[in-house]
């Protein structure tokens, strides 16, 4: 998120977020308000659409109440039948009317012969006597007429409140369905007359039994509101329901929710989508704008700066003429900076070349002076007869020649003043062998030196240490052959170990109180930041060790062990005598 482009996208997104949230909230409020409006319209339409169905049952109740007040009902069967016949003629939707006694038997009916012998067996008879109110029964098939009828009944009571019978009226369901279908209803509207179990008593359109049961169950719980069902292949439908009788039947009115809401979802979807599109277009504009106005030129300037970093200061910057003023001015400043760096590099190169030339001249002159000193010492030493003095002059000559060798190797080195250990020890061995041969001895030096480069300040004490170690007892010895073994190998990741095997080490005193060459070796080891010691093997042979740190030498992959060198079991089985730094 440290890049410019994501930060701009985040800032613009946060800036437009309140507007997007406000638009989405407005869409939700509009959708909620539209749902409330649709519910109100649906309830009003349901009341209007089911008014005729409600009126059928209301008229039936009023007709039965009017017949219950007629005197002919309690007169002779002929007068009772005539009263019922006249009432039936004025209401063609009703199938038959019957006056039933308290035991459930028919006293009179119209038309005659189309009523049951005993109504006490019907499921609606007992609830009617207990509820003392208008009852709508369950639909059944009338065998004599072959029609489906829906019975409604009104219980009768005398002045003392005793049950004296009931008036029963049958509604022709075929005519009721035809009437419901012929009503002027909105398009796609469905009107259902249902019982509490979800059975369709009458309908203007066919619906599945699952839908009818779902409408009946939800309708009985939502008489004061609306509810939603899903119809396979038709989506969501919104319904309103009204009870008939004493809540055991209901009339439901339903319409597709998509038809009710109309294009409102499209408006709401637009209010949801518009702010999102606005944010996306803003992000796209930021992406393209930063790519064309910023990223493009920063990438170009990065390429130019990379070329300047590699020392290619001739890279053209002509393309920046098309860049914005800020990047064009930045490119001009970078060009000026490159020209300044180029001029300074030229001055530094000249100064370094001059310094290198001076350094080589200094090392050359020091080397020449050391060679002159060595020649003078050899010249005067050759006239000395005393053995001790002659030996001292030979050792001084060896040390001066070692210093001269170091300066000669530094003079031949590259830009960095370093010395190769392999070259240094090889030429030191040649010098010592030549010097010993001049004294009538033959020195055989066997060396195993790693290919390491050390700085100039370390090369001098290392060379002097090697000269002291290799010449211990060499000059003045009566032996004609002097074997010497020499090894320089890495130890660990940051140390070098110099090992010298010289049989004259047995003549070197290990006492720190007695002046000995070990004092010189200890001083040189301390100068290198290391330590030196001589170990004693069980056979009495001695080895001289120098361990010192190295500043990142190029070390070989395979490091030979002491067994491979033929020098015994190593330091762990030996007694170590440490000079300079103490052993750890």
Topology:
Blueprint: H1 4-49, H2 51-68, H3 77-89, E1 94-100, E2 106-110, H4 125-131, E3 135-136, E4 140-142, E5 147-157, E6 163-172, H5 173-182, E7 190-195, E8 200-203, H6 209-221, E9 226-231, E10 235-244, E11 249-256, H7 257-261, H8 264-309, H9 325-381, H10 387-412, E12 418-420, H11 421-438, E13 442-449, E14 453-455, H12 456-470, E15 481-491, E16 495-502, H13 517-527, E17 531-536, E18 542-549, H14 562-565, E19 575-579
Parallel strand pairs: 13-15
Antiparallel strand pairs: 1-2, 1-6, 3-5, 4-5, 5-6, 7-8, 7-11, 9-10, 10-11, 12-14, 15-16, 16-18, 17-18, 17-19
Helix pairs in contact: 1-8, 8-9, 9-10, 10-11, 10-12, 11-12, 12-13
């Amino acid at each position: 998120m440290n890049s410019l482009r994501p930060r701009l996208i985040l800032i613009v997104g946060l800036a437009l977020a309140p507007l997007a949230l406000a638009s989405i909230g407005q869409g939700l409020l509009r959708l909620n308000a539209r749902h409330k409006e649709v519910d109100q319209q649906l309830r009003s339409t349901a009341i209007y659409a089911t008014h005729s169905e409600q009126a059928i049952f209301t008229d039936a109740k009023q007709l039965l109440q009017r017949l219950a007040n007629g005197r002919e009902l309690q007169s002779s069967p002929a007068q009772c039948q005539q009263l019922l016949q006249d009432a039936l003629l004025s209401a063609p939707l009703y199938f038959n009317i019957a006056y039933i006694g308290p035991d459930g038997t028919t006293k009179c009916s119209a038309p005659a012969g189309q009523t049951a012998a005993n109504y006490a067996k019907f499921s609606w008879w007992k609830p009617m006597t207990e509820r003392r109110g208008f009852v709508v029964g369950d639909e059944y098939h009338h065998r004599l007429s072959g029609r489906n009828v829906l019975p409604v009944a009104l219980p009768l009571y005398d002045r003392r409140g005793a049950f004296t019978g009931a008036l029963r009226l049958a509604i022709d369901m075929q005519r009721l369905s035809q009437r419901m279908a012929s009503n002027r209803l909105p398009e796609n509207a469905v009107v259902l007359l249902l019982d509490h179990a979800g059975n369709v008593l009458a309908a203007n359109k066919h619906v599945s039994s699952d839908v009818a049961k779902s409408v009946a169950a939800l309708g009985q719980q939502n008489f004061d509101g609306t509810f939603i069902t899903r119809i396979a292949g038709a989506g969501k439908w919104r319904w309103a329901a009204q009870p008939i009788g004493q809540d055991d039947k209901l009339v439901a009115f339903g319409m597709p929710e998509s038809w009710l809401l109309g294009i409102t979802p499209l408006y709401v979807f637009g209010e949801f989508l518009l702010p999102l599109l606005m944010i996306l277009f803003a992000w796209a504009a930021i992406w393209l704008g930063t790519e064309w106005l910023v990223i493009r030129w920063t990438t170009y300037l990065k390429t130019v700066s990379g070329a300047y970093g590699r020392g290619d200061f001739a890279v053209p910057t002509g393309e920046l003429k098309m860049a914005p003023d800020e990047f064009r001015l930045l490119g001009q400043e970078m060009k000026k900076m490159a020209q300044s760096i180029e001029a300074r590099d030229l001055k530094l190169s000249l100064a370094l070349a001059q310094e290198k030339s001076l350094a080589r001249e200094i090392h050359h002159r020091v080397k020449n002076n050391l060679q002159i000193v060595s020649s003078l010492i050899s010249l005067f030493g050759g006239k000395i007869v005393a053995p001790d003095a002659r030996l001292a002059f030979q050792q001084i000559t060896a040390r001066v020649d070692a210093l001269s060798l170091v300066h000669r190797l530094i003079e031949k080195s590259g830009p960095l003043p370093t010395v190769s250990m392999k070259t240094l020890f090889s030429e030191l061995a040649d010098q010592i062998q030549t010097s010993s041969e001049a004294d009538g001895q033959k020195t055989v030096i066997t060396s195993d030196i790693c290919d390491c480069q050390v700085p100039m300040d370390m090369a001098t004490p290392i060379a002097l240490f090697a000269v002291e170690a290799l010449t211990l007892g060499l000059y003045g010895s009566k032996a004609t052959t002097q074997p010497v073994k020499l090894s320089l190998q890495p130890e660990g990741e940051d140390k070098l170990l110099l090992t010298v095997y010289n049989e004259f080490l047995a003549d070197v005193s290990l006492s720190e109180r007695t002046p000995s060459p070990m004092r010189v070796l200890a001083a040189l080891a301390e100068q290198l930041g290391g330590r030196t010691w001589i170990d004693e093997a069980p056979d009495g042979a001695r080895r001289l060790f120098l361990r010192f740190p190295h500043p990142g030498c190029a070390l070989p992959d395979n490091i030979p062990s002491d067994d491979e060198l033929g020098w015994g079991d190593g330091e762990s089985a030996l007694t170590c005598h440490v000079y300079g730094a103490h052993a750890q």
